[in-house]
Write a structure and sequence with these properties.
By secondary structure, the protein is of the alpha/beta class. 45% of the residues lie in helices and 14% in strands. It has helices spanning 3-12, 14-30, 35-44, 64-72, 75-83, 133-189, 195-221, 252-277, 284-291, 313-316, 321-339, 370-383, 400-404, 425-428, 449-466, 482-485, 504-516, 558-566; strands at 46-56, 96-97, 104-108, 111-118, 123-130, 229-233, 238-241, 295-299, 358-363, 388-392, 430-431, 437-440, 469-473, 492-498, 521-527.
Length: 581
């Protein structure tokens, strides 16, 4: 989005920017803190952190995750709370596990405690944060003492439980071994065939008894002696200030100026975003930014009423603003053609022609005024004495004949074969309700595209020889390929953009395609121009030549009365439409 488009968005939505600045000033004034609250905030931002480090001193590695769980849940936090005469915190039993570090959190009174295992160093770090330095230190050290005590007691209990279990198992195995030994001796004395079976059982019991004895020896070696964890660093409180990132000024005037500036920037950003994400072009700057083409004419915006939307206003009400706008387009096209025609015309157009012989009327999508503009432009050329042939190229959406007062048939067709084509254009051309304008209908809807292009090319070549001006009403550029196939038969092209309707992306894509094909684009004609709507005045002067102060189809003085008698439906601003049905 360029600077000109941002400026246009700000002009279009200036009320939004004013509201944003006003809201910014109001928010800045209402949120200005008092001196007491500023002092209280500065005091509340100061806290103290104390850390106690315990290292594993046993001859076997301890399960540090289990030790951390013991430190933050159960009797250890409760014992610390009781020993320091603290009030139990609401979340004192709510531990939060950090899956990345294995740290767990517990609240003990007003203090926050984080216990973190360091498996690489076989250590436990107890960090306490509190507003009071002594409280942070006492909580951290007391928790370490309680943890050492509880872990030692649990280790002794675990050792005694394992020893008792192994000892009972050893007694049972010894009794079983003695019984099998007696049975084996008796079987040997009696020369029983079960000697081998009894001997195998006896040997199995001896092996189990040997393994059990090894387990007992290993257990005795791991017998806890003294404290399993010893402190290598007792807690020392460290002052720290809580940072809230970018701080806001506390001075009222500075806050108001800052709030107003933020409101202004947000307002401009909102206006630009709304203008950009509205998806449609709006106004001449927006259209020129999207198409990167000059706007050569603006056609006024008018609403529709029933069937009269198919009336050609240039012919029915020749003194209307719409008629003058199309005459301005005709004049602009002629001047641009003369200014750029020193070289020979590409289709044997005689030097000195004031208008392009064959001109396309195109748009990115449907419903953008192609048929309406083609009919009105044909009437403009006809009233200047030109013989005009209008050809409907929109095979899928045939309705140009309704503007011309012609029949939908006969269609353009090949009377011969594919290899020996034969055409009879004088038989299919029609006179229209507009003097000096003739009409050739499009091929039938079910005709193959390749055959349609061939027939239309032949029709354009024939019309070039039998008319002063040939106007082509094309299908949408982004929906069909027919316009591109026929681009070489045209001397000039006028791109239509409907203000407030055409998508910005569609206009951009259409002009990109035209540039790639080196199409003879003269410029953009704006349909339903914003500048002609209520509150915008008459607008820019592209191609108008001169303006009028009366309304759509109105004249002043006696001529006004005569016009009303002849064409009463055209009084007011909501009679004729440039929208395609």
């Amino acid at each position: 989005m360029g600077i000109s488009e941002i400026v246009w968005a700000c002009r279009r939505r200036w009320r939004l920017i004013v509201v944003a600045v006003a809201l910014g000033l109001a928010v800045g004034w209402l949120t200005t803190p008092t001196a007491a609250s500023v002092a209280q905030q500065q005091k509340s931002d100061v806290s103290y952190k104390a850390t106690t480090t315990l290292v594993d001193s046993s001859n076997i590695s301890q399960n540090l995750d289990r030790v951390v769980l013991v430190a933050t849940a159960g009797q250890v936090p409760a014992a610390v709370t009781k020993a320091l005469h603290l009030k139990a915190a609401t979340g004192s039993t709510d531990q939060t596990l950090n899956s990345n570090t294995g740290a767990r959190h517990v609240a003990i009174g007003p203090a926050s405690v984080v216990v973190t295992p360091d498996k690489g160093a076989s250590a436990i770090r107890i960090s306490t944060t509190a507003k009071d330095a002594q409280l942070a230190m006492r909580v951290s050290n007391t928790l370490a003492d309680e943890l050492i005590l509880v872990v030692g007691v649990q280790a002794n209990d675990d050792y005694n439980a394992q020893w008792n279990y192994l000892d009972q198992t050893r007694v049972q195995l010894q009794s079983q071994e003695q019984t099998l030994n007696t049975q084996l001796n008796e079987a040997i004395a009696a020369k029983s065939p079960d000697v081998a079976t009894i001997d195998a059982k006896h040997q199995a019991v001896l092996r189990v008894e040997s393994d059990l004895q090894e387990r007992i020896l290993k257990l005795e070696q791991s017998r806890p002696t003294g404290a399993l964890f010893v402190p290598i660093e007792w807690a020392t409180p460290i002052r720290q200030v809580v940072s809230h990132g970018l701080s806001t000024p506390t001075d009222p005037l500075t806050r108001l100026l800052l709030s107003a500036g933020i409101g202004l920037l947000l307002g401009i950003a909102a206006a630009a975003l709304l203008n950009r994400h509205s998806e449609t072009v709006y106004g001449v700057p927006s259209i020129e930014a999207a198409t990167r083409l000059p706007v050569i004419a603006e056609i006024p915006y008018i609403n529709a009423i029933g069937k009269r939307r198919f009336d050609v206003l240039t012919s029915v009400v020749p003194a209307s603003r719409v008629a003058e706008s199309y005459r301005g387009l005709r004049t602009t096209v002629s001047l641009m053609w003369i200014a750029n025609a020193p070289q020979p015309a590409p289709h044997d157009t005689p030097d000195g022609d004031e208008v392009p012989k064959v001109m396309m009327i195109a748009s990115a999508g449907p419903g953008e005024g192609k048929s309406t503009s083609t009919a009105n432009l044909a009437a403009c050329y006809a009233e200047s004495g030109k013989q005009v042939i209008v050809i409907d190229l929109d095979q899928r959406r045939q309705k140009l004949h309704r503007f011309m007062g012609a029949a939908p048939q006969p269609h353009l067709e090949n009377l011969g074969t594919e290899y020996e084509p034969r055409y009879d254009f004088p038989a299919v051309i029609q006179e229209t309700a507009i003097p000096g304008v003739r009409f050739l209908g499009s091929p039938e809807r079910d005709l193959r595209p390749a055959e349609s292009i061939t027939v239309i090319q032949a029709a354009i070549a024939w019309a070039r020889l039998h008319a002063d001006v040939v106007l082509l009403d094309t299908p949408p550029l982004l929906l069909t390929n027919a316009t591109y196939d026929l681009m070489g038969a045209a001397d000039a092209l006028v791109l239509l953009v409907r203000d407030g309707h055409t998508k910005r992306a569609a206009a951009t894509r259409a002009t990109q395609m035209l540039r790639r094909l080196d199409a003879p684009v003269l410029g953009v004609c704006v349909i339903g121009a914003v500048s002609t709507r209520r509150g915008y005045g008459y607008g820019y002067g592209y191609g108008y030549g001169y303006g009028y102060g009366y309304g759509y189809g109105e004249e002043d003085g006696d001529r006004d009365t005569r016009r009303r008698d002849k064409a009463p439906p055209y009084q007011g601003e909501s009679v004729i439409s440039l929208e395609e049905p």
